[in-house]
User: What shape does this take?
Amino acid sequence: MSSTDKPRHRAKILVSDDDQIVRLLTRQCLEAEGMAVVEAADGPETLEVFVRERPDLVFLDVEMPGMTGLEVCERIRQLPQGENIPIMIVTGSDDRQSIDAGFQAGATQYKTKPVNWSLLGRDVQYMLRASNAFNALKRQEDRLRYLAYYDPLTSLPNRRSFNEQLNRILKRSQRRNSNAALMFIDLDHFKRINDSIGHGRGDRLLVEIAKRLTMELREDDAVNYLSEDDEDDDSISPEIARLGGDEFTVVLSDVEDTMHVERVASRILQSLSEPIALQSHNPVVTPSIGIAIYPHDGKDPDTLVRNADTAMYVAKAEGRACYRFYDEEMNSRAVEQLKMEEELRHALRNNELELRYQPQIDIHSGEVVSMEALVRWKHPERGMVSPLEFIPVAERTGQIIELGEWVMGEVARHCLYWDSLGIRPFRICVNISPLQFNQGDLPDWILRFLEHSQLAPDRLELELTESAIMTDAETNIAKLRALKEIGLHLAVDDFGTGYSSLSYLKRFPIDTLKIDQSFVADLHRADGAAIVDAIIALAKSLNLRVIAEGIEDENQLSYLVDKQADLLQGFYFSRPIYPEDVPGMLRQKFSWDFRETGTS
Ligand code: C2E
Ligand code: MG
Ligand code: MG
Assistant: This one.
C-alpha cells in the first residue's frame, strides 16, 4: 500500500489477545502501515486501556481466559465512546453460530484464525475509512438536528424545541398536579436599538442577553425545582428558548407559589437591564415580561402561550421594563389593539407581509389594463389578517410610512419580475394612506424611489383617499402637482364617502375617480344608483376617468356597462391574485353581452 493511502492522523489500534505472539505479530503488521498500537492481555485490561487510550479501532480475540472477547465487546458497546467504534473480533472457529454471536455482541467485522498477516493491515485501513465516513455523516446529522432545535446565534433552544418542551412540561405538571409558569420576554425598542448600533452589534447584544438569562436562571436555587417524586428522568430546571427576533421564553416547572415566579421575573428584569458593553456603545435594553401560570391561566400550550403573550403586551403598554401576570380582564379590545401594534412591528421585520394584485378591466376592450396592489398580512398564528384591520393601526402608530415604503419596494420588485417575462406593461395602482400623503416629502421620496428602482413613473397610479386630499386642500394642490409633474397617475379612492368640493376637484391634477364599493353594493337601491349616476356624470364633465370597484354580480356589471364607467374592478372578474398569476390574468379578455340601452 502506498503511503498516500494512509489516514492523515496516526490511527491508534487496541490489540487485545492473551497470546503474546499474536499481539507481537499484529503490532508489527499494523505499525508497518503507520498505525500506533496499544495492547491488552485480557478482558478487564482491554476495558481499562480502551477508556484510557481512546483507540480508533479494537482488535479483539474471542477466546480469552476470564472474560471472553464477546463479553468485552458488549461492554465496550455500552461505553459512551464505544458506541460507534469499529471492533474486529478474531475467532478460532468459523462456524455460523460463533460468527452470529460475534455480531450480536456488537462486532463490526470478524476474522478467523489463522490470521492472514499480509492482508491484516489493509483490512484494518478499510475499516477505519468506513468508520471515518460514518462519523462524518453522524456529525452532519448531529449538526442538522442541532439546527432544527437550536438557534444558531445564541445556542438557545428555538421555537420548535420550545413547543416540545412546553408540551412535555405541561403533561408532567398535570401528572404531578403541580403548577408551571410560562414567561414571555420581549426586548423593548429592540428594532430601534438594532438599527442604531448596527446589526452585527445587535446580534452580539442578543447573544449577551441569552447569556444573562441562562446565568440568572442557572444561579436560581435548583433545589426549588426538585421534588421528591421525580419519576421522570428529563430535566426540570428552568427551560429557556429564543422564539426568534428579540423574543425569549422561560418555563419554570413545579412552581409552589407566585412569589417565587415574581422573584425570578424581577431578577431577569434587573439582570437584562444592566448596560451592555459593545465596543463604543453601551446600550441599555429593558425587557417586558408577560407571565401565565399553568393550569390557572390555561390548561393547554396554545392558551397558555396566548395569555402569556397578552400579558407581555400589557407590560409594554404599561410603560415597558416591567413584568405582568396574566388576568382575564386583559383580553379586552384595547389590549388586542396594542397587541396588534407590536405584532405589526414584527410583521414588517419578519417578512410577514405580502402583496396581491386585483385586475381592472377596460369596459371597451374587456382587457386588463391595470392592477391594484393590495397588501396582506400572513400572521403566524392568526392566518391572513385583512388590511381593514391593520392599516388603521399602522396609520395610527405611524408604521404606515414604513409599510407604504415596503409596498412600493415590492411593487418595483414585481415589475422587474414581470418585465423579465416580457409581458406587456400595465399600470399599477398603489394605495397611499392619508398619513403617507400628508408627510412633507412624499414627492421627494417618490423621486428617489423611482430613480433607485428604475421604474417608469407612468406605470404607477397613486390612490389617494378623498378625505386626505380635501383636508387642507389648498396646500395639497401643490403637492398633487408635484406628484403629477413626476409623471405619476393620480386617482381618488373611495370617492363619494368624504366631502368633495367641486371647486377643488376642478383644480386638482387628478386622472381618475374611483366610485366607492359601498355605492356599487347599493346599486339595487334607488339612492345607491342615483349616487353612482351622479359620480359618473361628474367625472365625465371633469374629463376624468371613472372606475367602479366592488363589482360582484351581473346586475351591477350590466348597470355600470350601461352607464359607461371606464374601468371595472371586483370579485366578479377576479379576486386579488398572487404576483405569479398576473401574466396569465393579463392574457384574459373579458366579455359580456348586455344590450346597452344608451340612455341615462
Ligand atoms: P380599497 O383601496 O378600497 O381596496 C379595495 C378593497 O375591496 C380590497 O380590499 C379588495 O380586496 C376589496 N374588493 C375588491 N373587489 C371586491 C368585491 O367585488 N367585493 C368586495 N366585497 N370587496 C372587494 P382589501 O384588500 O381588504 O383592502 C381593504 C383596504 O385596505 C383597501 O381598500 C385600502 O384602503 C387598504 N389597503 C390595502 N392595501 C393597502 C396598501 O398597500 N396601503 C394602504 N395604505 N392601504 C391599503
Ligand atoms: Mg384602493
Ligand atoms: Mg376603494
